[in-house]
Fold:
Amino acid sequence: MAVACTLKPVTELRGVGPRLAERLAKLGISQVRDLLFHLPLRYEDRSTRVPIGRLRAGEHVLIEGVVELCEVAPGRRRRLLCRVSDGTGSLTLVFFHFYPKLQADLARGTTIQCFGEVRDGPGMPQMIHPEYRHADANDEAWESEGLTPIYPSTQGLQQNSLRRLVKDALLYAETEQGLPDLLAGLGLELPGLYESLSYLHCPPTDAPRDLLENGSHPCRHRLALEELVAHHLTLRRLRASMQQLVVAPALPPADRLKKPFLSQLPFQLTQAQARVVAEVEADLATEQAMLRLVQGDVGSGKTVVAALAILGAVEAGWQAVVMAPTELLAEQHMRNFAAWLEPLGVEMAWLSGRLSGRSRQAQLQAVADGRAQVVVGTHALFQETVSFARLGLVVIDEQHRFGVHQRLALREKGREAGVQPHQLIMTATPIPRTLAMTAYADLDVSVIDELPPGRTPVRTVAVASSRRPEVVERVRAACAEGRQAYWVCTLVEESEVLQAEAAEVAAENLAEALPELRVGLVHGRQKSAEKEAVMAAFKRHELDLLVATTVIEVGVDVPNASLMIIENAERLGLSQLHQLRGRVGRGAAASSCVLMYQGPLSRTAKERLAVMRETTDGFEVARRDLEIRGPGEFLGTRQTGALQYRVADLERDAGLLPTVHRIGDRLLAEYPERVDALVRRWVGDAERYGQV
Ligand code: ADP
Ligand code: MG
Structure:
């Protein structure tokens, strides 16, 4: 059958033996199809000869001339020098590796063509190890009608071989079936799949090289679109399969508990919170499992939204679980939820990795027999030993700490009980909308795009660490006014031991410099009871200054704290800096954040500090972060490989994303039989997203 053609192993192509196959495998090429989708990095124009007299350093050009001299130059490093002239000027070819045959080949009087990069040389321009041939040669690999593609390659694999192999592969390319012809109907005029592949591998001489190389040519768009649609459909299928298998419990809004809950809050919900609560309630009321991501900047008040969802589950007789990425944050949630929910008669349980022995047993028992209605904890919650009586809702806080895979694992966990629990995921890292639509195609997204009233934006400054004494004075002044401050120590090392030691030293020094202040210390090496005691004391304002490692990055909430000092801020990424800064500016007082840095700063570090000074808007920070780092790293998925695209670039191709969704809808409705092949081509046989 024709379809199978490009699925043949590359060894079926002319001249591909085991050695070559092995090298190709290093580039991820094992089938003929892989060659087709191995796209050029850049192109060279070998169609027009440039007179030697007009060469400029840095250009890749074709020249033709007569060899005037060819000799081995003496010296520490033997090299073959060959002077070529064409009447407009002369050029030296330099070869460091050469055989006698080369010297014979370039004998005086021979007319040759060379292609290479022009460099400045002594007295005249040079080309080092150019590709060359005799002007009258009939050389197939060299001969190229249009632009010459340069491919990503690997040691021992010549461009010439790659070019020849791709050409052979293109003979099969017509059997590749692309997206059906529904693009025109969507207002998109893009060339077909086959057309695009052959154009990208063999563009004509007058093709716009810049567009081809920067990915904005319609043929590139075509491929990017196919790839994005394939990824999108993968996530949608995954979602559909999860939702079909098992039904979720219908959880109507908490009529009885909601009123007393809201009336005990010291504030009213913002409009954005109320809107998101309504979205969540609508999801929960059906038997289709909710899969909703709530995005909201730090301090936008996501916790209350979660609490209302939880009340719905509790009132309907189901259990809810809240999972946080760190002990500290889980403890804080436990405190918050206990303060809100226990007065309403809700039974709580607590599970963390540090809990052991009898108390752990007791908590597990309460979870298993259903006495515990709300369970808070860290990822310890998802160990095999934990089983729930009637789990109806899973709340995951600070999603960016968990990968796509963990999220999917949680879903599995919930299904053990025979129902699919609803899932509410809260992220404090606002993800740019376009990115969210693709990376989280299996989730619905709600955005809390409003901060509670009365907050003043945090003022951010960057100061060199040599100005530490001034910074210490700032802490003194702020605390003298009855405010509190954080002092965060960072270390490059991942080691918690070193981090802790650095923080201990800093705390001692600060306590000495600021004897009138009550200084506390939290770090990851402390027992959770100890940490909790310190945090609680800080919250009660029994401490003025809290020295900490980055453990306090997420979620910690002390409205009276108005000054955040971050030492060695240059070591942290933008999202971490933004999270830390989000610890202040939570009350009505004007807050500031001091980023202390140790110079000299790298370019990206400079950029990051500048972004922090310029904006406090989490979405803007995220957008700039994306610009600086690229989507893979941004989502923390680079290592897992879940979001690696071959052609598409989420930022560059953002404009295609709305179309991706519409095409996805129509494909599923009108051409369901085409979906499989598309997904298999781009995402692979194993649905990578589903592997956990
Ligand atoms: P985050 O979205 O970062 O998790 P939190 O839920 O911790 O934010 O809320 C931050 C602070 O704002 C808390 O002190 C919380 O009590 C308060 N808060 C939440 N919603 C409102 C509101 N509508 N009005 C005033 N304060 C609010
Ligand atoms: Mg939070």
About this structure: The chain has four domains: 5-43+165-207, 48-143, 255-448, 458-618.
